[in-house]
Every structure is written in C-alpha cells, then in structure tokens.
Amino acid sequence: xxxxxxxxxxxxxxxxxxxxxxxxxxxxxxxxxxxxxxxxxxxxxxxxxxxxxxxxxxxxxxxxxxxxxxxxxxxxxxxxxxxxxxxxxxxxxxxxxxxxxxxxxxxxxxxxxxxxxxxxxxxxxxxxxxxxxxxxxxxxxxxxxxxxxxxxxxxxxxxxxxxxxxxxxxxxxxxxxxxxxxxxxxxxxxxxxxxxxxxxxxxxxxxxxxxxxxxxxxxxxxxxxxxxxxxxxxxxxxxxxxxxxxxxxxxxxxxxxxxxxxxxxxxxxxxxxxxxxxxxxxxxxxxxxxxxxxxxxxxxxxxxxxxxxxxxxxxxxxxxxxxxxxxxxxxxxxxxxxxxxxxxxx
Length: 346
Ligand code: ATP
Ligand code: MG
Ligand code: FE
Fold this sequence. Notes:
By secondary structure, the protein is of the alpha/beta class. Helix content is 41%, strand content 18%. It folds into 2 domains: 2-117 and 301-338, Nucleotidyltransferase, domain 5 (2-Layer Sandwich), CATH 3.30.420; 127-296, ATPase, nucleotide binding domain (Nucleotidyltransferase, domain 5). It contains 10 helices and 10 strands. A hairpin with a 2-residue loop joins β7 and β8 (150-156). The chain is globular and about 65 Å long. The protein starts with a strand and ends in a 28-residue tail after the last helix. The structure holds adenosine-5'-triphosphate, magnesium ion and fe (iii) ion. Magnesium ion binds next to loops. It catalyses: L-threonylcarbamoyladenylate + adenosine(37) in tRNA = N(6)-L-threonylcarbamoyladenosine(37) in tRNA + AMP + H(+).
C-alpha cells in the first residue's frame, strides 16, 4: 500500500510517500523558520497561508522524486491534530479533496503518534514493547508503548514542554527562534560546573516533569550576571551549558525511573528535543549500563516532517482504517490515549 502523508500542524510543511512493502519512497520539507523568526515565534495566520503556498509544490516534488504519479497512490494521510487549527485545516482540506478526486481513502493522523513511532523509520527499528520519551515543542511525556495504538501515559510536564523551555531560555539570551538548537550549540562552548541549575521534581517520586522553574532560574542568573557586569560571551555559554545539563539530567532521571518501574529495557526518544546531542549521548550511556537499547530518529525526523505521517497513515490504512464520508472534525487538542490499535477500527 502506497500512502502520501501530509504534515501542516505548525510551522513545517512536510510531505512524504511511504510504501508498506518498500518503506519510505520520498520525502520533502519546507520549514517556515525564516518567516516567523522576525516575530520571535510562530504566527498562526502566517503559518496557514504559507502551508497553502508550499503544499502543492511539495506534493509535486515528492511524486517526481519517487518517479510516480498521483494515480499510483492508494491513500492519503494528513495530520488532524494536535496543532494550530488554521494550519491543520490546510493539510486536511487538501488531503481529503485530493483523495476524493482520486477516489482513494484518506485518513486523519495523530501528530504525536507520528513522532512516537518515527524511530521505526530507522534500521534497526525498535520492537514492542518500549518506553517512549516524547520531547517536543508542545509535549514532554513518558509513554508505555505495547503496540501501535496501545499507549499508556506514565508521566508528563505539569507546565512547559522541554522544547518550549529551550526556546524560552534561548529567547532570554537573544539567540533567536527556534532557540533549542541554538542554545544547544552555544552550550558546547560552556564550562561544566560553573553554574548548577535545579533538577525539578526529581527529589520526589513520580514521573511528571516541570520546566517553568528552570526558565525563571535562567532569567535570574542572567540578570545577576548582567548587574555584576560579568555577562560576557563565556558566561552566556556557561548559562546555556547549565540549562541544557539540567534539562537533560532531569529527562534522564525520569527515563531511568520509568524503565525501572515497568521492567522494560527498551527506550525510544522522539520529538524535536530528541535531536539534542547531549540527551542522545547521556541516554546511550545509561542504556548501555542497563544492558538495554535506545532508539531515536535521524535528526530530520525528530522535528516535524511528512515521513512520520505517511508512515502512520500506511500502517493504519493497511489495516483497513480510513476516514468516514462525513467531514470529520479536526482535533487541535487530541490526547494520544484516545487512539486504539489499527485492526480495532478496520
Ligand atoms: P509538538 O510536536 O509537541 O506539537 P512541535 O511540533 O512544535 O510541538 P517539534 O517540531 O517536534 O515540536 O520540535 C520542535 C522543538 O524541538 C522546538 O522547541 C525546538 O527548540 C526543539 N529542538 C530542536 N532541536 C533541538 C536541539 N538540538 N536541542 C534542544 N531542543 C531542540
Ligand atoms: Mg516546528
Ligand atoms: Fe511536532
């Protein structure tokens, strides 16, 4: 089964083609980073308009790369949520219209399920069951995964997501948008041990996270350094180092706890923050110590992309799932726990 996947939930227009027999056939992405950088964050209306501009050219690009035509498609999957309503509407409307015109089924896909199973696009792919750390711009969750659509929430952030905290801390340091990768780059110049930031909620049992306090801690540290006239380039790098170290350490502690609690030895990390080199290195170390394994997507499939949506679409459509004829509502908010295994819906 050959499925076209469309991702337009936020500020990346992603399109890809996935074949259940051959795997990923082609992939194209347009990032709106430059468009939103001037404003220091995503402007929803500008995002929607840009998806409209880029989507058809990207679909053409993907079909050409795979040397196929639209008549070779068996289905079209699109992100239906969670995300920005106007942005979602662009991908959903085009995906459903195109499928209807081609007389093939379409399918609404959950963006976080896309992230969650993106490590399965790599070789070797993780086997079920596993613990997943979903760390993105909008989510920080520990999930027990027994199979496709069998997800149990073990813990999540009670306030900011890890990616959001990275972006906000980066903004305080005038690093630009999106700040996560920029802060991580600056941290490589930092000195270990000059500042030590707190590891929120690690001193009590449980698997929830909180990152908003770290943001405040970062601001206070920067202000104090500035007042004392010591906020030079090295001090900024040292603050970036301490911030990243605290976030990574907190994530690592909770992953270890989740593995211990469930007795599982397989860990998957996914979502934008899973591109973070420090996080990958620390988790690789931990998992080798536990004689376990860690899996993550290549950096381009950590952040938003079409491949992860085409992948879920193909998995679920091959089991017989598809949209009904009524115009189904988009889900700007959509808990992952409302999903079920593909066969159950066939
Ligand atoms: P969600 O998937 O929760 O709806 P989103 O789609 O906006 O949110 P992603 O595209 O998965 O999020 O990830 C983007 C986030 O990842 C941003 O917050 C970005 O700063 C962060 N990020 C990307 N690369 C890195 C990195 N190397 N280190 C830290 N953070 C990073
Ligand atoms: Mg993005
Ligand atoms: Fe995302």
